[in-house]
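Pipeline run #58 for the internal structure catalog. This entry was flagged by the ingest filter as a single-chain record with no existing model, so it goes straight to prediction. Upstream metadata was stripped on purpose; only the residue string is passed forward. Reviewer on rotation: M.T. Logging verbosity set to normal.
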Amino acid sequence: MKNCSLQEFYIVAFSTYVNLWYILFVGVFLVFLMAICGNLLITVLIWIFPHLHTPMYIFLCNLSVLDIIHVFAILPKLMSIMLKGDYNISFVGCLLQMFMFVLCLNTDFLLLTSMAYDRYVAICIPLQYSIIMNFKTCAMLASACWVIGAINAVMHSFLMSQLAFCYSKTINHFFCDLRAILKLSSDDTMHIKNIIFAEGVLFGFIPFILILASYICIITAICKIHSTAGRLKTFSSCSSHITIVILFCGASLSQYMKPETEQSEEQDKLLSLLYIAVVPMLNPLVYSLRNKDVLLALKIFIKIKVSNFLSGAFVR
């Protein structure tokens, strides 16, 4: 590892808003808490209720687990910087954070694409849904998303570990972002930048196009439904997914596919915060509040917990 004896990096975070850090800390902490609790609840509900053991909810469970990993990998360090001024992060810690970020980003895109395909099959070719989207297919798709994301994350971590950092160690971001770290290396990083752009097309832009194509077919199929109530019911089953796709894909693609400029660094931080923190917080709200099956499971779950609590209190 040729890093010129580098032991740690220095994360700047939101340096232009230092006077507002305590307010930002409260906001980030609330988002973190809501994201963890919400996604954990969704995961538990899907795990324990048999009527949620369908492809759509299996993908949603994977997405919730991924969101938990995503916020746990990034936000605790950001909160530590804001609360205690703990700017330093070890070189190994930075590589680990980078690995988790790349894993979550790539796997997120692939899972959202798989969910779009599931909705396409369910709405456009419903008679073959149980044949095409059986448990084996669903498990293979979900596993492939994680494996591809993990392999890609290992590759990026390895490439970054081979770079030399002989001069600056100040990361102008709130986490170990790939492009922010590349700016610090004293080596020629053009080959890694080209890989990042190519993978942005392969794992970002192409999945986004596939999702759009799926929803064009879905909307076309919905328009052919004669009943207004039927159209609304069918569209509601995929509207939550569209919302998350627009927020997540829009923010991440606009950051990694656009040219780098000095003026865009603060904008990049805000865009990163949107898909790293805000989207994982919104996922449980969007998928639960607009979904009757999840709401039913939540009501039963609360009823069981309240009943157990009252029974225990009565016994005591």
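catalog note: The first strand starts at residue 8 and ends at 11.
catalog note: The CA atoms of residues 205 and 253 lie 7 Å apart.
status: ready for reviewer M.T.
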